[in-house]
Structure formats: structure tokens, C-alpha cells
Amino acid sequence: MLTATKEAVSFIREKIKEIPKTAIILGTGLGNIVEHLEVDCAVDYKTIPHFPVSTVEGHAGKLICGKLGKTRVLVMQGRFHFYEGYSMQEVTFPIRVMKFLGINTLIVSNAAGGMNPDFQVGDIMIIKDHINTMPNPLIGKHHREFGERFPDMSQTYSSNLIQKARENATELQIPVREGCYVGVTGPTLETPKEYEYLRIIGGDAVGMSTVPEVIVAHQMGIRVFAVSVITDLGVPGKIRKFTHKDVIEAAEKTAPKLTSLIIRLING
Ligand code: HPA
Fold first, then answer.
1. Are strands 124-132 and 177-183 parallel, antiparallel or unpaired?
2. Per-block average pLDDT, block size 10, for the chain (268 residues)?
3. Which of 60, 37, 49, 57 is nearest to 12 (CA)?
4. C-beta 23 within 6 A of ligand 1
5. Are 233 and 114 contacting, i.e. CB atoms less than 8 angstroms apart?
6. How far is ligand 1, taken at its centre, from the CA of residue 26, in Å?
7. Of 123, 151, 198, 263, which has the fewest CB atoms closer than 10 Å, so is most exposed?
8. CA-114 nearest atom, ligand 1
């Protein structure tokens, strides 16, 4: 794992001369941030040694380096999900690579089902905490270079960035919610009772990504900011049949608002 990480790092260093400090992982349907990016270079995942390749519709597979406003960023266009059959080591491989490349701040977005009864489709939720119901990505051999064996998780999401995002949202007049994200494996969506259960245990939103990457990033000392776009509701009385296409459509509608929020956050 350590050797594979180092090989991927050397390869990317050859392609990207100056590595930015901030990385962004684009979630489902939120690819429009790329339209605002002044691209310096792009590296296909499939050319990077040991990098997994994305298989889901709506997820491209590129590492893009460029300027968002006046700030240089490294963008992961396409991420890896556990439900695709990747191991947790594969899902989180790019995070370790990015840390070794010099990234110190990670911004993650995702699409999620809203369980808080106040939420509506299209809402943006700043993630303040999470509940992990997936296999933990840190299970297995411990490499000291990746961080502690038993990482503290009492302050996983940067309170500094959360506060900045709140202020930016007010200035931009973009309403935002805050809450707890529950990470599930998928690929099935929840039954009504599963939504009810996840709400009872403290979840405001549920989705199939983010938590593994955040755990690994936090273990490595990366500052994390994460945000969900609510694409459907798991609220009693409001549960409807929906498809992955509906998720993408709902996320795309909210994307411009989320994009301006993120651009402001990283340029603040
Ligand atoms: N459940 C799980 N994952 C999701 C959902 C959901 O309702 N919506 C978008 N991703």
C-alpha cells in the first residue's frame, strides 16, 4: 500500500509541477465546478499507477489541476464507491496520494437523502459530523506514515471552515442547513424503516460516499470541509420512488449555488 501510494505520487509529480494545497472531490452531478476552473493540466486516473478507475454513470475519472478564482486547486473529477466493488483501501487511495503530494485541505461534496423533516430537495447541508455504518477504511495493517492507529474523531470537520462557509452563505444569500451525514454502503436506497432508523440514531442525511475519504483524510491531518446536496427525502409521508437519474438531476439544479459557495470558501 505504501509503495503503491509512493509510485502514484511520483507519477503525478512528473505531470503536475506545482501541486496546490487544496483538493476538491466532486460528488454526483456537481461536476459544473469544472466549468469555472482555469485548467493547467489534467491527468486521467487510468494512467496513474495503482489508481482505481471510476465506473459510475455521471462520474468522469480525472485529476485536474487549475485555478478556481485566484486559488489553485486539485480537483478529483470522479470518486470511487465501496458499492462498485472497490476495497476501502482503493476507495481511499487517492486521499493518501493527495496528502503525500502536499494537500492540506480537502473539500468534499456528495448527493444525499434528507431525513431531517425540515429539509427539502435542493437544500445544501454543511456536514458537521458523521455516523459511519460502512466498514472502516483503517481496518488492516497500520502504516505509521498514514497517521495514528486510533485516530481521534471528536473534531473531524474543520470548525473554522464551517464558520467561514456559514458567513459566506449569508453574504451570498444562499440558505444552508447543517447536520450529520450517515455513510451507508448502498447500492440499495433505504426502505422507509431504514430511513426512520437512521434518523433515530442522529442522521440528518444519508449517502454512499464521503465517510471513508474523510476518515482517511482526518487520520492524515488534512483539514476537511464536506457538504451534501439533498436530492430526495427519507421523511415519513414524503418518501417517493426515485432513480439515480433523479439524484443527478436534483444535484445539478443545486450545483450553481454550491459552486459559488465553494469558490468563495476557498478564496476567502
Ligand atoms: N440514500 C442513500 N444514498 C443517497 C440517497 C439516499 O436517499 N440519495 C442520494 N444518495
1. parallel
2. 94 92 87 89 93 68 93 93 94 97 97 98 97 98 95 98 98 97 97 98 98 98 97 96 91 93 93
3. 49
4. no
5. yes
6. 16
7. 151
8. 7
| Ligand 1 neighbourhood includes 111 CB (under 6 angstroms) | yes
- Identity of the residue numbered 253: K
pTM of structure: 0.96
Domain at 2-267: CATH architecture: 3-Layer(aba) Sandwich (3.40)
Question: Ligand 1 pocket check: which of 190, 228, 244 to mutate, most ligand atoms within 8 Å of Cβ?
Answer: 190
CB contact burial 234-245 (16+ within 10 A = b; e otherwise):
bbeeebeebebe
Would you say 62 and 54 are in contact if contact means Cβ atoms under 8 Å apart? no
SS3 89: helix
Best mutation site among 206, 228, 248 for ligand 1 pocket (most ligand atoms within 8 Å of CB): 206
The torsion angles phi and psi of 153, rounded to 5 degrees, stand at -125, 25
Domain boundaries, the chain: 2-267
The closest residue, in CA terms, to atom 3 on ligand 1 is 207
User: Exposed, middle or buried by CB within 10 Å (0-12, 13-18, 19+), for 129?
Assistant: middle
Q: What is the DSSP string of 237-261?
A: T------HHHHHHHHHHHHHHHHHH
CB 83 within 8 A of CB 208: yes
Confirm or reject: Cβ of 58 under 6 Å from ligand 1. no
Instruction: Tell me the C-alpha distance between 59 and 110, whole Å.
Output: 12
Asked if omega into 187 is within 30° of 0 (cis), the reply is yes
204 CA distance to ligand 1 centroid (A)? 12
